[in-house]
Amino acid sequence: MPINETMVQEIVQAVLKNLDAQGQMSGENTGFAGKTAGKHGIFRDMNEAIEAAKSAQKIVRVMSMDQREKIISCIRKNIHENAEVLARMGVEETGMGNVGDKILKHHLVADKTPGTEDITTTAWSGDRGLTLIEMGPFGVIGAITPCTNPSETVLCNTIGMLAGGNTVVFNPHPQAIQTSIYAINLINEASLEAGGPDNVCVTVEKPTLETSNVMMKHKDIPLIAATGGPGVVTAVLSSGKRGIGAGAGNPPALVDETADIRKAAQDIVNGCTFDNNLPCIAEKEIVAVSTIADELMHYLVTENDCYLASKEEQDALTAVVLEGGKLNRKCVGRDARTLLAMIGVDAPANIRCIVFEGPKEHPLITTELMMPILGMVRAKDFDDAVEQAVWLEHGNRHSAHIHSKNVDNITKYAKAIDTAILVKNGPSYSAIGFGGEGFCTFTIASRTGEGLTSASTFTKRRRCVMTDSLCIR
Ligand code: NAD
Questions:
Q1: How far is the CA of 146 from the centre of ligand 1 (A)?
Q2: Where are the alpha helices (DSSP H) in 304-362?
């Protein structure tokens, strides 16, 4: 029987209700003292969660690579099967993003997150013997995840960390805890189905700053991967532990006079509106060279369903979106029509993005909004465009995009902006393997320099040396 919209809604409601009910239970034990009954990997107490992940890691570390890969294959299968439920839960719980794009993101995680094939060995052999560099596990990794891609990050992090021989303790964003719990449970179900241990990833029912602190200070957590805004990355990098910092961005899309302007407009809107602009890599503003700026705006409005906001509408949007000078979380990840409705504009049904022209200092341009509002800054020439784009990226060194056919211009921009990601002539999401080459990740280590994380990022390098033997050349 085909699953229809009503049935999926009913499943999501039932799952959320069930998770909520179980979260309030007083405590049936299933192996660990504070574990929540009926769900795998969910604990009341952070210390108990860490203990469980430690026990699981003892099993994982002696598994063959083949066994690890079997678990990962099962996780991929579970993600495909649950992509729609996870997408709907994410939107319903956080109020952010859109279901269609979130479904695509989950399939992307399942298909393109590297597994054990990313764990490789480097070898030197010669007269004095054989030396290998092997990638070994850290043990139990602590991971902090955002509400913008909640289950995507949990799933993607676990695949990579597990492929590296680790287990994971998550402190997810409290606003996305039920969606994260659902993802953690289905990962552990996959592990059990493949003959692996329970608790390959764990969390607590009620993550708080306190549980995060317990995790960060715990003697058995040697590495913490933080995916989120500047606050969390700074906290992790101050913890005294090794930290992988995947922080905020404000990616500019630069368009010069050599670009295919019509295609640039289309690519920029497609990237900017994906999951209502939630991805940290998504186009957050445009910097256009003056000679093509009007043409670009023309294509944005006439061919790409953009709404051109008047000065009064920009002011009204600023007042709502940056209420009291602070980013209004109720606007983050909302679609363009909802945002326009908040300022009393009843926009046509096809509207996907709000555009306007303004100076780089405009609050809707300089702030990382994470919603489909795209301000365009005019530059007098290419050098001026580069200077303004670098200013707008705020030194995050995260992501930037360019539409140009001039290789010298592209090179100059790449060197000046120095970001972990630079997409040329395509939508931003091609950087994570969606319509572009390469693997997928939802943790882009901009601050600490690992770049796009994968299984190998979560391993220690070990040098194994045999002197004067095993070279058989
Ligand atoms: P957020 O910073 O509000 O929260 C992220 C996580 O950090 C949550 O789990 C939150 O509970 C926790 N947290 C926040 N402050 C903390 C502190 N002081 N100590 C410990 N934990 C703390 O971010 P968000 O709204 O969930 O996500 C959006 C932000 O994350 C944006 O800035 C976006 O660019 C960034 N982001 C970056 C990446 C990346 O790969 N670089 C990926 C996704 C999101």
A1: 5
A2: 311-321, 336-342
Q: Are 313 and 368 in contact (CB under 8 A)?
A: no
pLDDT at 37: 53
Q: What is the whole-number distance in angstroms between the Cα of residue 233 and the centre of ligand 1? A: 8
One-letter amino acid for residue 430 of the chain: S
* pLDDT given for residue 3 in this prediction: 53
Sequence letter at residue 67: Q
Ligand 1 binding pocket includes 246 (Cβ within 6 Å): yes
Q: In this structure, how many other beta carbons lie within 10 angstroms of the beta carbon of residue 350?
A: 9
Using the mean position of ligand 1's atoms as its centre, give its distance from the Cα of residue 13 in Å: 27
Q: Does the Cβ of 203 fall within 6 Å of ligand 1?
A: no
Number of other residues whose CB lies within 10 A of the CB of residue 470: 11
Q: Which atom of ligand 1 is nearest to the CA of 444?
A: 40
Using 50 as the pLDDT threshold, list the residues of the chain that sit under it.
1-2, 21-33
C-alpha count within 13 angstroms, C-beta hemisphere, residue 135: 21
Q: What is the pLDDT of residue 5?
A: 59
Q: For residue 473, what pLDDT is reported?
A: 84
φ, ψ at 68 (rounded to 5°):
-60, -45
